[in-house]
Amino acid sequence: MIHAEKATYPIVLLCRVLKVARSSYYAWCEGEAARRARRAADDALAHETTVVHIASRHTYGVPRIHAGLRRLGRRVNRKRVARVMRERDIRGVTRRGRRSLTRPDAKAKPAPDLIGRDFHAERPGTKLVGDITYLPTPEGWPYLACWLDLATREVVGHAMADHHRAELVVDALDMAHGRGGLEPGCVIHSDRGSEYTSTQFRHRTGKLGLRQSCGRTGSCFDNAAAESFWALLKEEIGTRTWPDRATARAEVFSFTETFYNRRRLRKHKTFGYLTPAETRQRHQHALAA
């Protein structure tokens, strides 16, 4: 106000009326160039942040936006990134609840729990977790089964069909075995759904030389890593209802293989922010060394 009215009234009078020290006013004037520079820098940072946010399919929040900028060589404070995102209303996605498909077979004898809620693996191909979910379409529900490697959180096997019989999880397991480099005796953990306690699935598991593990009935925490992936997929893929099954299949494949496995950053406790594919490469390089 003083700056706007200084042509009409003396600065001394304006400062006295508004109870502002003259030195404060002159210091404010001298800092105008610095403020313009900061605003320009914030605008440039906001542009870079928007580019990373769009590349993440509008899913990244502050931590991964900050990690993405650092990967591009941009050294910036995380709190500044948070402030710029808040001022520009750039937001990551939040997760929502989902309906469970687990239908236990009362007559089946489930495998023991070999994981014990320890969702950590020292190297790839030693522990997998799996589950089934559904995707709403007007043509009916296609069902998706996935297997995640706990060492990298990479989706190493997935299959989709218009049913959730045992063949679905067996197909996903065959894919994981073919591309995941599973070690003999690798633990494959799931819930106690009838698909995983079926004779067909157990036979296939034994033939591949894998060890089956099952969590307790009604406890989502026993398979929390797989449950977390479903929440992530359904929120970050950005679609609530697909127009048809073919579109759902194509978008899920694009999300898992193009974005999630190869581009989505995840914080590893040792390596920092890496994609699942990069985490696998780090493990492989360490073994080679």
Automatic annotation (TrEMBL):
<dbReference type="GO" id="GO:0003676">
    <property type="term" value="F:nucleic acid binding"/>
</dbReference>
<dbReference type="InterPro" id="IPR048020">
    <property type="entry name" value="Transpos_IS3"/>
</dbReference>
<feature type="compositionally biased region" description="Basic and acidic residues">
    <location>
        <begin position="102"/>
        <end position="117"/>
    </location>
</feature>
<dbReference type="Pfam" id="PF13276">
    <property type="entry name" value="HTH_21"/>
</dbReference>
<dbReference type="Pfam" id="PF00665">
    <property type="entry name" value="rve"/>
</dbReference>
<dbReference type="InterPro" id="IPR025948">
    <property type="entry name" value="HTH-like_dom"/>
</dbReference>
<dbReference type="GO" id="GO:0015074">
    <property type="term" value="P:DNA integration"/>
</dbReference>
<dbReference type="InterPro" id="IPR050900">
    <property type="entry name" value="Transposase_IS3/IS150/IS904"/>
</dbReference>
<feature type="domain" description="Integrase catalytic">
    <location>
        <begin position="120"/>
        <end position="284"/>
    </location>
</feature>
<dbReference type="InterPro" id="IPR012337">
    <property type="entry name" value="RNaseH-like_sf"/>
</dbReference>
<protein>
    <submittedName>
        <fullName>Transposase</fullName>
    </submittedName>
</protein>
<feature type="region of interest" description="Disordered">
    <location>
        <begin position="94"/>
        <end position="117"/>
    </location>
</feature>
<dbReference type="InterPro" id="IPR001584">
    <property type="entry name" value="Integrase_cat-core"/>
</dbReference>
<dbReference type="InterPro" id="IPR036397">
    <property type="entry name" value="RNaseH_sf"/>
</dbReference>
<comment type="function">
    <text>Involved in the transposition of the insertion sequence.</text>
</comment>
